[in-house]
Every structure is written in C-alpha cells, then in structure tokens.
Predict the structure.
Amino acid sequence: VLELAGAHARARVAGAAGGDGDFHHDDTVFVTHAAEGCESRQVFKKVLKNGAAGVFQGKILVKPGAQKTDGYQISQSLLLDDDSQFLAKPELEIYADDVKCSHGSTSGAIDETALFYLQSRGVPRAAAQGLLVLAFLAEAIEEVEDEAIADDIRGRLEGWLARHAGKATS
C-alpha cells in the first residue's frame, strides 16, 4: 500500500521472480494518487515452470483533485511449460478527469523464432532460453535506480537460471 500525498510525488515499484515446481508467488500492490501531478510506475515480471504459480493484484486509485496524475502498471509472465499458471487482476479506479493512466497484463511462452535464431548462431538451447528469460526480466530490473542492487538482482536471477537450466522444459 502506497499513497502519494504530496504534489508531484513519484513512486516506482517493481518485482521480478522465477519459480519452479511448487513455487507460488503473489504480488499485491495498491497505489493511491491523492495529490496533483503525481506519478507511479509498477512493473512486475514472473518466469514460471514445472507447475509454478504466480499472482498479481494491482490497483491504481486516483482521488478527486489528483489532476495531472500519471499512473502506469504492467504485470507479465513467461510460462516455460503448460503446467504453470499466472493470474492477474490489474485495476484502475479514477475520480479525476485530467490523468494519464494505463494498465495491462500478458502471459506467454518463449518466442520460438528468437530461440531458433540464437541456436542457429551456435548458442546451446538452455543458454539461449536463459538469455531470453533475462531479456524478459530486464524491464523490471531497469526500474532499480541503485546499480549495485540491480547487479545483485541480475546475479541472483542468472544463478537461478543456471540451477534450473538443466531442468528446462519446452
């Protein structure tokens, strides 16, 4: 829960997760724009395989008088098999008329054309899949302003991919 109560306040909230097997990850974010000229950005990405589950519930509330609000919300999942699932409920509730707000959610599989391209250039399938997963997660990691923290997150995700590459499906 986050409330932007001062004029021109800004907030960025992001998450990236990789799940395998009985993994269940739930993100719930509620951002209230209560003042004029505020901006919020929410970016959540999940990579799921072997029956893993992910949930995203997000809401942007724009109160009356919160004119010139800019709210953005995206949740996406990359499903590496047919057994995993992603459930999303993005919401906008707007009580001001001069705003720019958007939200969306998508789920999909690895792009087989991109995978084929990398493999045709000599990249082994598991490594190619890992590169595409990291590219998918990049938008969420880019939200982290502190480069040391962003590097730590990238390292942890690369470690997860290395541990799970041999178990890759599809």
Observations:
- The chain is about 25% helix and 45% strand.
- The longest helix spans residues 125-142.
- Residues 62 and 147 are 31 Å apart (CA to CA).
